């Protein structure tokens, strides 16, 4: 395909459509993790930002949970169950964070572990 025969698509970024789902999931988790970390450090002066970061992280995990619950999801059933459990834990822990009863550390640890898995690093630290 070239720019002369397809003028609307000829000058778009070629890498946009080539990104894998794993790459997109990794980037979404990385952004959510960074927001959790940065807003946690400013929680006393800007609690609404922390609340938004926690909500955004939970929304991401809700999407993952919905995806692994689909019957046509290609992941092995044990991994699907583990990911769904991580969503449930994240939901429960998020409530504790918002109530001032817990820190975001566990949420960050979960996201980081899943990011390692997405990069093919498994349990490596």
What does this protein structure show overall?
The chain has 125 residues and is mainly α. The protein has one domain. Helix content is 64%, strand content 0%. It is built from 4 helices and no strands. The longest helix has 23 residues, at 47-69. The protein starts with 20 loop residues before the first helix and ends in a 7-residue tail after the last helix.
List the keywords.
mainly alpha, 4 helices, 64% helix, 125 residues
* Domain module count: 1
Task: Give the ordered list of helices and strands.
Answer: HHHH
Tell me, rounded to a whole number, the average pLDDT: 87
Q: Measured on Cα atoms, how large is the radius of gyration?
A: 18 Å
Strand content: under 5%
Low-confidence stretches: 1-6
The geometry reads as: globular
Structural class: mainly alpha
| Number of DSSP E strands | 0
What is the quaternary state of this protein? single chain
Sheet having the most strands:
none
| Fraction of helical residues | 55-70%
Distance between the termini: 43 Å
Number of helix segments? 4
In short:
This protein is mostly helical. It contains four helices and no strands.
Break the fold down into its secondary structure elements and pairings.
Blueprint: H1 21-41, H2 47-69, H3 77-98, H4 105-118
């Amino acid at each position: 395909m070239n720019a002369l025969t397809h003028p609307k698509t000829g000058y778009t970024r070629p890498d946009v459509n080539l990104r894998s789902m794993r790459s997109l999931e990794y980037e979404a988790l990385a952004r959510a993790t960074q927001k959790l970390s940065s807003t946690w450090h400013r929680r006393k002066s800007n609690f609404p930002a922390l609340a938004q970061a926690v909500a955004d992280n939970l929304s991401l995990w809700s999407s993952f949970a919905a995806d692994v619950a689909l019957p046509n999801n290609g992941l092995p059933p044990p991994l699907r169950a583990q990911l769904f459990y991580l969503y449930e834990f994240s939901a429960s822990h998020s409530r504790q964070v918002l109530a001032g009863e817990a820190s975001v550390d566990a949420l960050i640890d979960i996201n980081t572990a899943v990011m390692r898995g997405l990069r093919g690093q498994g349990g490596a630290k």
